[in-house]
Structure prediction request, 157 residues.
Amino acid sequence: MFSFAERLMLFNQYEILKKLDPQKSGLYTRHQEVVEKGFESLYADLGISTTTLSKEEAQEMDDILALFRAIKASTGGAASNMAGKTEFVGFGPNQPDERFAYADFLSNILKFPQEVSNSPDNRPELQLEKYRTMLKRWDEIGRKRELSADQIEHLVA
Prediction:
């Protein structure tokens, strides 16, 4: 997966890290051995994801999160009458895939607001199609940031 040059650079970076953080020297030495010997099955242990999130997938995530921010900002009590339907339940820690990693990055690193439900039905793989339908409906009403109760109800129907 990594070329020889990439493995060499990683090896050298771990050597530098050993000097900068001697307390983690043992960890960095193990990582060096993994990249030096090309143990691809252990690359995940290096903390480097083997999957990527495409620009299109990231845009879809941004749109989904923006949709739920619009719903939350517009509720004024409307969402409380639709318990469970206006809550963002997808892309949670129950499925740590690239979408969750991206949402987590936005939330924790860039400090974008994100609420993830602790609901037992937090199964993102089942939610994605629902979110895509909601996005289409949001497009129909012009992606308004201020939504009426009727518009919210249309989005979550």
Notes: The longest helix spans residues 55-74. The CA atoms of residues 89 and 118 lie 8 Å apart. The chain has six helices and no strands.
